[in-house]
Every structure is written in structure tokens, then in C-alpha cells.
Design goal:
The chain has 19 helices and two strands. The chain is mainly alpha-helical. It has one domain. It is globular. The two termini are about 40 Å apart. The relative contact order is 0.14. InterPro entries: O-antigen_ligase-rel_domated (IPR007016), WaaL-like (IPR051533).
Length: about 425
């Protein structure tokens, strides 16, 4: 596996001079803004109709500053985009650019594309300047701010923080949305819970901070009622603590338990003894009270079939970057799968590029485990199977984490807290 060679001096935060401290502070502030400000919505639920407003201009400004900073720091980052696996980012973004002329909304795709490129340019330089520990600490601060802000919006400004979802023709379900859609809040809660578990692992951060942060993430998961986020949080935590959980003793114990439990379960199930329990449980987990909602993956099977049909109509170049919201207008505005979403937006070639990144992650998690990022990647990989949680019109936490994790091993990032310099 190709890596980019960097000195130990480059991996530590540049704090040797006032200018170095200024650059470190600015880069850290931009990473924080990408995570928090690019996702926060202070206007509340204004419907699905797209409109340009002050928040969009503000997010675009953040992306513009990221791009400018990325250009100034290009000497630190350009090699990362020319070697594997960072080269996959280069190929994907280049292909997205090729598909722009075929977009059903060129101005929208162009703005989203420029934002993606601007933020991407900053990421490798920011990772090296801040160092692995501080970089993840800044991301954690942005995630926590989003959750705290969401609770303030939910409790104090319900016109912003309460999301009303039409379940049936007559029934409306109120969920906690906070500063975003409940599903986005759920994803941020999953990231927060897993990342603070990482920071507490090996005592990188005091448990007096870690435990309250993880509890806040878990409580928020319940409040926003994002079932996908609940599931992927469990997946992320399992990946973080896999060495402790999946020892030879625990695997043997689980196997023995399965041998003892499974036969009687099948016997009872064969007599129909569990039918009412299963049906009742599915109805309680569903939003509408119907078990069919879950057995069809909340209608996703129909969405996937429709998305595949639309992809087949324009398999080469798709419909334009981030235009799924227009093409899938009648089907939840996206394909509910990150690869299908990319195929719809940029054609099969773009989808294959994203799939190559996913395959690399699966390989790397197994062959070169890095617990500090593997759990976060697992959250996106697991959630991406049934939701379109990765790319957005303006890059925020998901894209930042995805690209950062892709570059993590390549840049040989260290996760130890920086030590004070000896005099």
C-alpha cells in the first residue's frame, strides 16, 4: 500500500511560531465549521421546496475559505491526492466534473461540486497540521455543539426543533429534529457516541467528559427516533471494541448459547407461538404502526427498484451531481443507498468509484485496524446500505469523516495526544 512520507515535525501541530499558531487555529476553526455550521439549520422545517437563503450563502462562504486555505497549503496535501488510496478521491471528483454538463440542474450541481472540491482540498493539510488526536477532537467538538444546539432548539424553539412527519393521511408524528432533519440528527448522534467512545478508549480523554457525551448521544438517538442511526451506532461501537468483545472466550460462549437457545426457538416458532410477539414488536418499532413498514425496509425496496430503473435510463453520466433530490422527488428525494445515489447522480462509473472506496475500507479495517477511525467508517458503511447519508449539497461531517478516514493510514496519522516540547 502506497503511503505519503511525512516527518514527525509535520505530523505535530504547527505551534512553534505565532504564524504557525494562527494557521493551526484557522484550520481547526474551519474543520469545526464544516462539521457544525454546514449541517446546522436555524430556520426550521420550511418544507421540501428548495430555495436559496442566507444559510446557504454562509455555508458556501465557509467552503470558499476552505478552498482558499487548501490552495495556500497545497504543498502539504497534493501528494495525498496522487497516491493510493487518496487517488480514489481524485478520480471520483474528476469524474463528477465530467458529468456536470449533463446535469438536470447545472447551477445546483456546479455549486455542490465546487463546495465538495474546496472542502476536500483542505482535509489532508488540516489532518497534518492538527495531528490525528486534535483533528478528531475538533470533529468531536463540532458534533457535540450540533447536539447541544439541537436540544436548545427542541426545548426552547419548537418551531425550529420539532419535526412534524406525515405518517398517514390523518396521523402526524412529531420527532426531535433540532438543527436538522431527525435522520441527520440521528447520524450526528451516532458519530458523537462512537467518537467519544474512541476518545475514552485508552483514556485519550477523561471519562468525566466521555460518559456524559456518550449519554447525550444515546438520549438524542431515542428522542429523534432514528432507527437506522440506533442500529449503526451499535455497529460502530462493536467495531471500536471488537478486540475486547470478540475474544476466543466470548465467541465460544456465544456459540454455546446459540446451540442451547436456537433449537427450542425453532420448535416454538414452528408451532406459531411467536407470531403475535413478532407482529407486535414490528408494529411498535414502526412509525405508522404497521409491520409492513419494516418488512419492506420502510418502503426502501420500492425506492431501490425505482432508482435502478432511472439509473438504467442514463447509466453513463447520470443526472448530475446531487440532483437525486430532483430525480427522486416522489421517492424521498434520494435512493436510500450511497452507491445507488452516486450512480444516479454521476452514472455507474461514479458509483464504482465510491464502491472502490468502500471495498478499501473493508479491507483496511480487517488488515490494518485503526480503532480511532474504524468505528466511524463502520457507521457510514452500515448506514449507507439503507440511507443516503454520505454526500450532501454542502459537505459536512459525513464527507469530512469519509475522506479523512480514507487518508488516515496513507498519511500515517498518530492518535497520541501531543506532548509538550522540551526546553
Amino acid at each position: 500500500m502506497a503511503t505519503v512520507a511525512h516527518s514527525r515535525f509535520e505530523e505535530r501541530p504547527a505551534a512553534a511560531s505565532d504564524s504557525g499558531l494562527l494557521v493551526t487555529s484557522l484550520v481547526g476553526s474551519l474543520v469545526y465549521a464544516i462539521v457544525f455550521m454546514n449541517a446546522a439549520d436555524f430556520r426550521g422545517d420550511t418544507g421540501e421546496e428548495f430555495s436559496v437563503h442566507w444559510q446557504i450563502y454562509f455555508r458556501l462562504l465557509i467552503c470558499a475559505v476552505c478552498g482558499g486555505m487548501g490552495i495556500l497549503l497545497i504543498s502539504k496535501s497534493y501528494r495525498a491526492f496522487l497516491t493510493f488510496p487518496g487517488f480514489l478521491i481524485t478520480l471520483l471528483i474528476a469524474w463528477i466534473g465530467v458529468t456536470l454538463p449533463f446535469s438536470v440542474d447545472r447551477s445546483y450541481s456546479m455549486a455542490a461540486y465546487i463546495s465538495l472540491g474546496a472542502v476536500t482540498m483542505l482535509i489532508p493539510a488540516a489532518m497534518q497540521i492538527l495531528g490525528g488526536y486534535r483533528y478528531l477532537l475538533v470533529v468531536a467538538a463540532g458534533l457535540m455543539t450540533f447536539l447541544v444546539g439541537s436540544w436548545i432548539a427542541y426545548l426552547v424553539f419548537p418551531e425550529i426543533g420539532v419535526f412534524k412527519e406525515q405518517i398517514t393521511r390523518t396521523e402526524v408524528l412529531e420527532r426531535m429534529g433540532g438543527l436538522g432533519h431527525p435522520n441527520e440528527l440521528g447520524l450526528y448522534s451516532a458519530f458523537t457516541t462512537v467518537l467519544f467512545a474512541v476518545l475514552g478508549y485508552g483514556r485519550r480523554l477523561s471519562w468525566l467528559i466521555v460518559i456524559p457525551a456518550m449519554l447525550l448521544g444515546l438520549v438524542t438517538l431515542v428522542a429523534c427516533f432514528s432507527r437506522t442511526s440506533m442500529g449503526i451506532t451499535v455497529v460502530g461501537l462493536l467495531v471500536v471494541y471488537r478486540k475486547e468483545l470478540f475474544t476466543q472466550q466470548t465467541v465460544l460462549a456465544a456459540l454455546m448459547l446459540a446451540i442451547l437457545v436456537i433449537p427450542p426457538v425453532f420448535v416454538v416458532a414452528g408451532t406459531g407461538g411467536f407470531d403475535w410477539v413478532i407482529g407486535d414488536s414490528l408494529e411498535k418499532l414502526s412509525k405508522s404502526g404497521s409491520a409492513d413498514e419494516l418488512t419492506t425496509a420502510t418502503g426502501r425496496t420500492e425506492i431501490w427498484a425505482y432508482a435502478i430503473g432511472r439509473i438504467a435510463e442514463q447509466p453513463l453520466h447520470g443526472y448530475g451531481y446531487m440532483t437525486a433530490r430532483f430525480v427522486m422527488e416522489k421517492y424521498s428525494y434520494h435512493c436510500h443507498n450511497i452507491v445507488l445515489n452516486m450512480c444516479l447522480n454521476t452514472g455507474v462509473i461514479g458509483g464504482m468509484g465510491l464502491l472502490a472506496m468502500a471495498v478499501y475500507f473493508v479491507y483496511a479495517i480487517y488488515h490494518d485496524p485503526r480503532y480511532e477511525i474504524d468505528g466511524l467508517v463502520a457507521v457510514i458503511l452500515a448506514g449507507g446500505l439503507i440511507d443516503g447519508m454520505l454526500f450532501a449539497a454542502v459537505p459536512s461531517a459525513s464527507i469530512l469523516i469519509w475522506f479523512s478516514a480514507l487518508l488516515w493510514r496513507q498519511l500515517d496519522m498518530q492518535f497520541d495526544p501531543p506532548q509538550p516540547e522540551s526546553l
